[in-house]
Design brief:
alpha/beta, TIM Barrel, 12 helices, binds iron/sulfur cluster
């Protein structure tokens, strides 16, 4: 990113630095071609991935909630045994090389089988494997003891928890298997316990037309309860589902208003500018990542928890066709040719979430890039202010 004063901006073509650093190119320049060439070249220089450092582990595909939108609905719940857990930690020890390990606990609801998490973490600790973990959880099963264990033994740094609305809506949507409990209140208490231990909690608000109207109230309620809390952040996502173009556009407008309210309450997620050339999309096309199912199967994407496996922890054989399938990219769409996000946009054909693009998705990506630029600018201003203060002190 480059900052220009008014005079420089009025006479850009005379700024050689802008030409040398590719901010300015001739109008007929083929940006897309250059981008493809740079990606190819950067990929050639990438050292081959010998080790696996990122492990998404599913202790179970069972869950204590019954969300109507769950994409795992209908799959048979499978729970990891102690024997498989031992083999999983051995697999990690044998495949990490010298890398620090990053574990992501996923499910179903990972806490339904917390003893497997204890077992794997204890083994890694006993073998001096450096690791840290994060989790996607509905947050219901935490209590003070477990939060303490999560911090000390699991090295848990971050738990993503979803809220589907204020109390009544949340309890209805989650439809927990327990009777006569106020699940909403319990999850809020657990968020309090987690953040008090310094474990970061990004709260995901799943929005659609049925609950959009009460989300502003939910954000206000969170602010009333948690106040300024550095360990807490909030963001919103639209639930999957078929919508007309008008419905999608309306939902997007409302969601952007919600995001502004979230930011005003101090819970916004700071967007960062991507500084490297983006060569892959996610764990699915990253050779240093693996997903391990409760039965020990090796997969590439958390949306394929019972199929499209490329191997097993008990075997050295890998299905290269499946690995290649997860790297396939869909064709570019017309809008890509003039989209400012193009150089950093990588989509995968196998991705349920993002193989397609919509005008709203494109708008949101552009919005996030602009927010990231503002953050970068703010950082630069603060750094300059600090430097000036230090200079003043030195002079005194
Ligand atoms: S909490 Fe997550 S895993 Fe459980 S039913 Fe809801 S969406 Fe599915
Ligand atoms: S955001 Fe959409 S339009 Fe832009 S480059 Fe990505 S796929 Fe293409
Ligand atoms: S759902 Fe999409 S983004 Fe997520 S892991 Fe799978 S391929 Fe990657």
């Amino acid at each position: 990113m480059v900052l220009l004063c008014h005079e420089e901006a009025a006479n850009m073509t005379s700024q050689q630095e802008l030409v040398d650093n590719w901010f300015l190119v001739p109008e007929e320049h083929d940006d897309l071609k250059l981008c493809a060439q740079i990606r190819q070249m950067a990929a050639l220089f990438l050292p081959p991935a010998k080790n696996i450092k990122s492990y998404t582990i599913l202790p179970t595909t069972g869950c204590n909630a019954r969300c109507f939108y769950c994409y795992e609905k209908g799959t048979k719940p499978v729970t990891m045994t102690a024997d498989t857990a031992d083999k999983v930690s051995l697999y990690i020890r044998e495949h990490r090389g010298e890398e620090k390990v990053s574990i992501r606990w996923f499910g179903g609801e990972p806490l339904v089988n917390a003893k497997v998490i204890d077992r794997i973490c204890t083994d890694l600790k006993e073998h001096d494997v450096p690791f840290r973990s994060s989790m996607i959880s509905n947050g219901y099963l935490f209590d003070a003891d477990m939060v303490h264990r999560a911090k000390e033994l699991w090295q848990l740094k971050r738990v993503q928890i979803t809220l589907d609305g204020t109390g009544h809506t949340y309890n209805q949507v989650k439809a927990y298997v327990y009777k006569n409990v106020n699940a909403f209140e319990r999850v809020l208490r657990n968020i309090e316990l987690l953040t008090a231990e310094g474990i970061r909690v990004p709260i995901r608000l799943n929005v659609d037309h049925h609950n959009m109207g009460e989300m502003a109230q939910l954000v206000a309620l969170l602010h009333q309860r948690f106040g300024a809390n550095k360990s807490l952040s909030v963001y919103s996502r639209v639930l999957y589902g078929e919508r007309t173009q008008e419905e999608s556009a309306l939902l997007y407008e409302k969601r952007m208003q919600l995001e502004q309210q979230i930011a005003a309450n101090g819970y916004g997620q700071k967007q960062k500018l991507q500084k490297d050339i983006k060569l892959n999309c996610c764990m699915a096309d990253n050779d240093q990542s693996v997903m391990i199912s409760p039965s020990g199967y090796l997969g590439k994407c958390e949306h394929y928890i019972d199929r499209e496996f490329y191997g097993h922890i008990d075997s050295l054989e890998h299905n290269e066709t499946i690995l290649r399938k997860f790297k396939e990219r869909p064709a570019e769409i017309e809008a890509c040719a003039t989209c400012p996000c193009y150089p950093q946009c990588v989509r995968l054909t196998m991705c349920d979430n993002g193989w397609y693009c919509t005008p709203e998705r494109q708008k949101e990506r552009i919005y996030n890039t602009i927010e990231a630029m503002k953050n970068e600018y703010e950082l630069w201003l603060n750094k300059n202010e600090n430097d000036n203060e230090n200079d003043d002190e030195a002079e005194i």
